[in-house]
Write a structure and sequence with these properties.
Six copies of one chain form a homohexamer.
Chain A (H helix, E strand, L loop, with lengths): L1 E7 L1 H4 L1 E2 L4 E2 L6 H9 L3 E7 L18 H11 L5 E5 L13 H17 L10 E6 L13 H12 L2 E4 L16 H18 L3
Parallel strand pairs in A: 1-4, 1-5, 5-6, 6-7
Antiparallel strand pairs in A: 2-3
Helix pairs in contact in A: 2-6, 3-4, 4-5
Chain lengths: 200, 200, 200, 200, 200, 200
């Protein structure tokens, strides 16, 4: 049995702007990924609305700093074979940082956390796949540069990279989130990448 | 679709003292509960080795304070219909508190967190079911009293209660954890209770 | 006996720019409100220079994050009948956020804290009255929009709203704080609103 | 105008074990002290159920660590002439420390916080009066030693000391809290001490 | 024996942009200062890449907030005669604050921490010397104003001031850090200032 | 140039019970170690009175939790070749844990922090040498067992171990700290161990 953790924000939680409501379980991309990968892999979904890579945002009764929460998840879902991280959209909010370069630094921090995590039972460290979220609607400053930064980072640290913009797009309603079809498509498109990384 | 969060410690993670290793996915009690409840319910497992109800324990690179981590999970898995909390065993460690009365106060805090949690989309608050862990091997001071305290608390605050000692027991190896058969049995025994609480 | 908590920043503390010094006790708006309401109501003043709605500002040896400090005050002054919150001016500092939309999100968080607070003795939750601070001197970006955002928020969540700009204005010296007459006038103007909310 | 901050726990909040409820405003000791001192002094009450001197207790949705909360109060009520600290009873709980020596160390920390607090407007630091709470009912380990430790500490650091046991006693109901008459009596008995310290 | 703490960021750590690597021990400015001052003075170097005056930056597995770390160093190296603080460059990053006025406020906070620090053995408080870092390469917004702000602050609070730009300059490679010769020169130039302040 | 970090508590700071005062610089064990090792090695001393392995102790205006402070030091003194950790005595205080088994768990956490630390410049991780402090005077519960636990731990995780009790002893005055001669002797005795570990 292989275990994959999907660590993300509202795009992973499944925020449906047409409600607002949450997409049905079967439409969220981690569920689609699970269907594609079948019974030999357990896909764990952990998406939080508003989660950033590594920055505080106290506007909710939840800890939105992805770097503070990740270590505990690495333990509670250990042993992990792969961590898929799709974060960065909330870093682009003007009151967080609004700067794709900073999101890249936050992503770099998350990768370091995965690689330095203390596993008392001695499991090997999981692989990492970073996913650039689909580009928010035109006009959002810097959004288009995120994928380039992430690809460069993945090369530098030696982890996997996937650009969601190649397979899905944000909805018209808020220009940030995905409709059901697009979120399912993302899970399906990630499946072959995951299979290669897990050598399935 | 109903969603149930199983919030616990190593007994929920599935610590197998005969390894030490983690029990196979299918043997962990949340998986057994999922099987029993079928497709109309999603069971989310979140068990961390060493997790306490509401106390700090800095001996791991993970946040073991159950009260600090719970709010974020309530958001990332929202909307929830039921939260099953099986914690308290680690509160009984001498260097945490070693006192079932204090574990009860910690459990009371967790229930208050569930009930006061801010849900921006306005979902109704989930029900709570507290589970007293199986009594650790004889000789552990106060362990036997935990179930009584939890039952009293459940009456007082109006939530569900289940005593795991009625259906399973700890293993001989360390007198704390459960073998595969016992952990499966716990999930199966919880199913009818959950069905009643969810009015399935 | 009814109890009202006045939760604010330097405008509530009573910062007198002509000193700098603190306004005399009788000139601060919570004192004026107390005089108007008389003996049947206790008005508690809790104003901190530099306090924000929900953001960290480490430039003082005091915790300026209003969201971190509020829960304890809700307990130490329980049972409360009304919480008046006049915050947001410090959120407008360029190094905090400088954005009235974000101040509104912070205010929303404070209201959620009041409503979700755990009161062990079971007192009913207090009502909330949000007060938009007087508009800072012309030229401050976004300052004029705060009142509109707060009014909209009050409608949305169902709490009271009062726009201080209708009854008082900031002083010439720093364009931020109020002189003694204006701060007294605010307390007097709030009295009838509070009487209605408390059904006095 | 002189300002006095009364910093304490449930004995200052006014916990009435016969309810449980809060004592009427006029019966709490800070109110009695206010009556005795008259209009030239403002007495600020800040009592929180469960507050310790300097230790974490996560069993409530409020920060019970007196050392973490005090700096902000020193600023929000500045300029202060006197800080009266009556804490230590909760330090004696078995799950906090249960040791009067440790409570003394916590009280020492609070005094250091008052003395090292940064006041941006340059007000002189307030005087400190530490009050040993009335001795809890017989049988509580170490409770009787607290007053001795506090007196010794007051001598060492040069602050005021008052032993509440000389003028009031705990009630029969829970052996910890005071009835209305005793709590009033404490405020009255503190008045002459405060007058001397403030040179009124 | 006198003790001097050098509290800084990468300019104190000795970041050599030509590597990137760390400058040799003998080339770092605290070492040069030590050589100049001789055996009667102990110079302690504590420089961290990315350290700010008083702001959080979670992009590293180290606490970069200078205000949170300083109190512990004041104790671990007590008794101190002088604290030299050269910080502010990282405050100028766009995602921290990018504003020299805010860096000044952070520096003011650090000075308040030194002056209010609780020393249990009663050592006198150390003197403070603030050092404006060399101006980053042209085009960096606001960089040139930092020295002016620091000088003004030093006058206001009565501490020492030194402008590094008078004796050294940043390298061409990244326009931020110093080469070996410049960092040595800074330590040599600080020596006479330190001698005066320590009355050597 | 090799760099060695000496991470400890009052025994490393150089607490002289006959004062109380701090031992002269030349008498502290890190200084003695520096003399023995000569110019090719830089010995960095970081000892804090009251420091524990991994537990909070809020009785000072400094962070005594060794696990919270260590990551920053690993960065500010990088690249490190060896970290010598002599902690555990303060864990034995009754109000911390008073249990050598728990001190061992805290030491295990510190070793994990060293090994998982993220070094952005890619330096190899430093070696670790754990030192059991000299046994406190007879009668201290559990003190004698600490060395055995640490030796066992060193074997298990593959790091160096040294028992200070073999070469030095605590003073008569408080039964906890060392006089000048003993602290010097510790540094001298550690030198050959360090030479072997650094392959000098």
């Amino acid at each position: 049995m292989r275990t994959v953790l999907c660590y993300g924000d509202s795009l992973t939680w499944g925020y449906d702007a047409s409600g607002p409501r949450r997409h049905a379980l079967e439409d969220r991309w981690p569920s689609a990924l699970q269907r594609e990968l079948g019974d030999g892999v357990q896909v764990v979904a952990e998406g939080l609305n508003g989660r950033t890579t590594a920055f505080d945002d106290n506007l909710a009764g939840a800890d939105r700093n992805g770097a503070r929460f990740l270590p505990t998840l690495l333990s509670s879902h250990a042993p992990l074979d792969l961590v898929i991280i799709m974060l960065g959209s909330n870093d682009m909010k003007s009151w967080i940082h609004g700067d794709p370069f900073v999101a890249r630094q936050g992503m770099r921090r998350l990768i370091a956390i995965v690689r330095g995590h203390d596993d008392p039972l001695g499991h090997p460290e999981p692989k990492v796949l970073i996913v650039a979220p689909p580009v928010a609607s035109p006009g959002k400053k810097g959004a288009g540069e995120l994928a380039g930064y992430y690809e460069q980072l993945a090369d530098e640290v030696g982890c996997g990279f996937f650009d969601a913009s190649g397979v899905c797009e944000v909805c018209q309603i808020d220009g940030i989130h995905m409709d059901a079809e697009n979120t399912r498509r993302l899970g399906e498109a990630l499946a072959p990448v995951v299979r290669v990384m897990l050598e399935l």
